[in-house]
Amino acid sequence: MLAAEVARWFVWLVAFAWGAAWGSFFNVAIYRWPRGMSVVTPPSHCPSCGEPIRPWTNVPILGWLFLRGKASCCGTAISVRYPLVELLGAILCVAVAELWIVRAEPGTLVLHATIEALLYFIFASGLLIATFVDLEWMEIPDEVSLPGAALGLLSAPFRAEPGLWSAAVGAGAGYLIVQVIFVWGYERIAGRRGMGEGESKLLMMICAFLGCRGALFSVVAGSLQGLLFATFALVTGRKLTPDIEERVIDGEVIEAPEQPHASRVGLLKLPFGPFLALGALEYLLAGDAILSWYFGLLQR
User: Fold this and answer.
1) In a domain, 260, yes or no
2) Burial class for 277, CB neighbours closer than 10 Å (0-12, 13-18, 19+)
3) For residue 293, is it within any domain?
4) 118: which of 22, 134, 258, 300 is 20 to 30 A away, CA to CA?
5) How many angstroms separate the Cα of 87 from the Cα of each of 18, 82, 276, 292?
6) Exposure letters 70-108 (e unless 16+ CB within 10 A, then b)
7) What is the pLDDT of residues 169-206, one digit of tens each?
8) Do residues 180 and 133 share a domain?
9) CB crowding 2-24: b at 16 or more within 10 Å, else e
10) What whole-number distance in Å separates Cα of residue 89 and Cα of residue 216?
11) pLDDT tens digits, one per residue of 65-118
12) Dihedral sign, CA of 36, 83, 85, 228?
């Protein structure tokens, strides 16, 4: 069966449900990985009272709306992050399905198009998880970057772009450039790190999926958007990072270590991971259109 023979509305519907369902898992990963917890055990439970979450209250997006943002067991407020992540997961899945299934090249088998779409959805999902963890904890979990980079390299021969050579060279170069220049070199010169190992590993994953060109776009676009946000935050007096003074892991209060990987703007810390992920998503979903628009402006 060819991808062109599948109705667009059906692809959208399945992709939305699939992405929203996985969004529930993303919320588990965002909560548990920074705390050193397993995403498998124990089963989903209320963080406040520990009561197991009933299946009918755990329906993506709708469950939060039905409960009006409060846990059914103890009435504790549930962060709006939960339905937001589920909705973003659904939107990303629909966007990926549109590009790799609905708009697949003529003659593409639906199985091949679906596998490629799933690979890029996994990549986009990793970027989504890394973004929310970095925003809250000022760190990027290795559970995202390292398996993501491995998957990108292993799947490169089976994807149309960027090719195995570009993916492998880009992954190695992207990691080493950030690690040597912005982590070790910057620390030796300035006494603190300009970026950290979290960003270098995340860029390695981005290179493995998008190649050198995509990684360069992600860095440049992420830097520009991060600078705009930092300027806005400085002008308005908004905080750029959360206040993390202590963490509770397995019932033990642990002082949060200094986040040496956080990028800095002036004297303020700024997590660069979310902007790097944003640039990667922009390239993945609309990179050619953005570059064509940009170079079109230069030619005027």
Assistant:
1) yes
2) buried
3) no
4) 134
5) 11, 9, 21, 29
6) ebbbeeeebeeebbebbbbbbbbbbbbbbbbbbebeeeb
7) 888 888 888 777 767 776 677 666 666 678 889 999 99
8) no
9) ebeebeeeebbebbbebbbebbb
10) 25
11) 988 888 877 878 888 999 999 999 999 999 999 999 999 988 899 999 999 999
12) negative
Query: Is 149 within the bounds of a domain?
Result: no
The residues near 55 (Cβ < 8 Å, ≥ 6 apart) are none
Residue showing tokens 């620390």: 187
Task: Output the DSSP codes for 187-205.
Answer: HHHHSS-SS-HHHHHHHHH
Tokens 């209060």 appear where? 253
Residues 200 and 263 in one domain: yes
| 168/198 Cα distance (integer angstroms) | 19
Q: Is residue 83 part of a domain?
A: yes
| 253 pLDDT more than 60 | no
* 3-class state of residue 242 by DSSP: coil
